[in-house]
Amino acid sequence: MIQSVDRALSVLCQFNAEVRYLGITELSQLLGLPKSTVHGLVKTLEARGFLTQNPENGKYQLGVKVYELGMVYSNTVELQSAARNAANRLASRYEEAVHLAIYVGGMVVYIMKTEFKGKLVAFPRVGASIPAYATAVGKVLLAALPDSDIEKYREEELYPFTSNTITSLEALRAELAKVREQGYAVDNEETLVGIACVGAPVFDRQGRVVAALSISGPAEKILGDCHPQLVEDVIQAARETSRNLGYAV
User: Fold this and answer.
1) Integer angstrom CA distances of residue 82 from 70, 128, 171, 210, 216
2) Which tens digits make up the pLDDT trace of 144-177?
3) Is-contact 140 212, C-beta < 8 A?
4) Can you say how many angstroms the Cα of residue 30 is from the centroid of all Cα atoms in its chain?
5) Fold identical between 3-62 and 68-244?
6) Hey, where are the domains in the chain?
7) Which residues, at least 6 apart from 176, have a Cβ–Cβ distance to it below 8 Å?
C-alpha cells in the first residue's frame, strides 16, 4: 500500500454518524500520528473538498466531495438494478455481451456487464474506461452533452484505435448529430477490429441521459441481417431501464 494514501483514507474513516467533528489533536490521538503529519493530511483533504472546517468550533467534518462520490455510487447501484432484467433478456436473445456505461470526464466507464451463459467476453470488464468517441455507448453519452463540451476535444486527442476510429472533430460532430437524430449509436470496429456494438440512451426521471446500454459482438453478426431488429431491441431495453428509473417513456 501507499502509506500517504492509506493515512489520508484513515482520516476520513474516523468520521461517522456519531462522530461528525474532529480536530487535529483528536485525529492525531486516534491515528497515532504526529500532529504535523495529520495537519498536512487534513489540509490536503480540505483542498480537494473531502473535508471542510467548521467556523464555529474550528474542527473538521466531511466535505461535499464525499457526498458527491456517495451519490455516484448510489446512482450506479440504482442503474444496475434498473437495467438488470432487460440486459439479461437482451444477452440471452442474441447470445452476446450487454453493457451499461456512464460518462466521466471524456471517458465511458462500464458499470455493468451481462454475458450469455458459457460465452465469456474479456473486454471491456466492469470498471474499465475507454475514450467516449470510440464507442457506441460513448457516442450516445456525448450526443447528450452541450456542443461546448464537444468543442473541448482537440484533434490530437482523437487517438485511432483502429482504422475506423473517428479522428477529426468534423467527423465527430457529424456522427453525434446522426446519433441524436436516430436515437442510437453504432461502433463499427472503432475500438477493436472485428467487434461492433449498438448503444442506446438511458434517461432518469428528469429526462436526462444518465447512462447508455449496449450489446456488442462479432461485427458480421451485430451489423448483419439481424441488425435492424437488434437496434430496436437495444432501444427497447434502454427504454425499459429508463422506465425503471422513473422516466415516462
Assistant:
1) 18, 20, 33, 12, 20
2) 998 888 887 776 688 899 999 999 999 999 999 9
3) yes
4) 35
5) no
6) 3-62, 68-244
7) 139, 142, 143, 150
pLDDT tens-digit map of 180-235: 999 999 999 999 999 999 999 999 989 999 999 999 999 999 999 999 999 999 99
pLDDT (mean) for 14-19:
90
CATH number 1.10.10.10 is the correct assignment for the domain at 3-62: yes
User: Cβ atoms within 10 A of the Cβ of 125, count?
Assistant: 10
The alpha helices in the chain, defined as continuous H runs, are 3-13, 24-31, 35-47, 64-94, 136-143, 147-150, 169-182, 219-222, 227-244
Query: How far apart are the two ends of the chain, measured CA to CA in Å?
Result: 47
Distance separating alpha carbons of residues 129 and 106, to the nearest angstrom: 10
CA separation for the pair 191, 194 (Å, rounded): 9
Provide the residue type at 76 as one letter: T
Query: Which residue, chain included where needed, has cell 444518465?
Result: 210
Quick check: pTM over 0.90?
Answer: no
Architecture of domain 68-244 in CATH?
Answer: 2-Layer Sandwich (3.30)
